[in-house]
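Slide 14.
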Amino acid sequence: MLCPKCANEKTFVIKTLKGLKNIRMRKCGTCGYSWMTEEKPLKDKDLIEYAEYLEQIEGKK
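Slide 15: predicted structure.
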């Protein structure tokens, strides 16, 4: 992944939070800039329905 600040290709993942969408903390090896990225499935009908179900449950609390 390219660094959004200096466009360097040498970046690395510091931490990953896994769930319905993966959130990764990244850091540039050149300029030291840190940022977060989000990875989620594009089209998975079962997962979309499950995520909607979870949102409904959370909304009722």
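Speaker note: The first helix runs from residue 45 to 60.
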